[in-house]
């Protein structure tokens, strides 16, 4: 899928559960001082992104992130309005709950993206992050958060030529697609070898 700028109308408001400053920071999984940075540009409604999170990320996490060799920097690259809503809700829940909500959204992607009322499904998921229905509404009305997510996605297009999801940048090397673990392993091992 090719990303195009998504136009939303939003009123200015505060973030649902956390301050805007926390909702807009880089979301990093693992040791922030890890020698190799793996940036993921992903859309919560993208099936290939969900497959990466279900099948490949657990192996990368166990082998590289949990051992302090790699940090994963997750950057929202929403391809449509539902993905943008999911990205905003995840960020409003805060850093401590962010990756848990992202994983929950990827694992239940078919359910909430195809639901008769997707907003209700997203509100249900948000409850696991401690957010009320009112928090979700306030979060989705936050123009500054919306602008922050759009700006980071546009920066990915400009800096790394990101055009589809998922796209990864591993120590500066752009890697498009949800590759199998073994291919990521070769790229990551090469990046780690260059750090010695």
Describe this structure in words.
The protein is an alpha+beta fold and 196 residues long. It has one domain (20-190): Glutaredoxin (3-Layer(aba) Sandwich), CATH 3.40.30.10. Helix content is 52%, strand content 13%. The protein has nine helices and five strands. The chain has helices at 20-23, 47-65, 81-92, 95-107, 109-113, 118-127, 133-140, 143-160, 181-193, and strands at residues 27-29, 36-42, 70-76, 167-170, 173-176. A five-stranded mixed β-sheet has the order 1-3-2-4-5, with helices on both faces. A hairpin with a 2-residue loop joins β4 and β5. α3 packs antiparallel against α4 (95-107), α3 runs parallel beside α6 (118-127) and α3 (81-92) crosses α7. The protein is globular. The termini are far apart.
Could you provide a short overview of the structure?
The chain is of the alpha+beta class and 196 residues long. Helices cover 52% and strands 13% of the residues.
| Global morphology | globular
Major beta sheet, specifics? Answer: 5 strands, mixed
Tally the beta strands: 5
Quick one: CATH class?
A: Alpha Beta
Gyration radius from CA atoms, angstroms:
16 Å
Order of helices and strands: HEEHEHHHHHHEEH
Count of discrete domains? 1
Q: What is the helical fraction, as a range of percent?
A: 40-55%
Mean pLDDT: 90
State the strand order across the main sheet.
Answer: 1-3-2-4-5
Number of helices: 9
């Amino acid at each position: 899928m090719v990303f195009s700028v998504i136009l939303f109308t939003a009123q200015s408001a505060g973030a649902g559960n956390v301050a805007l400053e926390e909702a807009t920071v880089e979301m990093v999984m693992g040791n922030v001082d890890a020698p190799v940075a793996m940036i993921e540009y992903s859309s919560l409604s993208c099936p290939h992104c969900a497959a990466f999170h279900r099948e490949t990320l657990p192996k990368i996490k166990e082998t590289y992130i949990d051992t302090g060799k790699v940090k994963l920097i997750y950057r929202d690259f929403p391809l449509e309005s539902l993905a943008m809503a999911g990205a905003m809700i995840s960020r409003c829940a805060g850093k401590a709950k962010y990756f848990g909500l992202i994983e929950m959204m990827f694992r239940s992607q078919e359910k909430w993206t195809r639901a008769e009322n997707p907003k209700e499904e997203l509100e249900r998921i948000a409850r696991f992050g401690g957010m009320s229905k009112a928090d979700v509404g306030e979060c989705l009305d936050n123009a500054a958060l919306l602008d922050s997510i759009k700006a980071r996605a546009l920066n990915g297009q400009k800096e790394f030529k990101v055009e589809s999801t998922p796209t990864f940048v591993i120590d500066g090397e752009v890697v498009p697609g949800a590759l199998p673990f073994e291919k990521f392993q070769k790229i990551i091992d090469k990046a780690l070898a260059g750090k010695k």
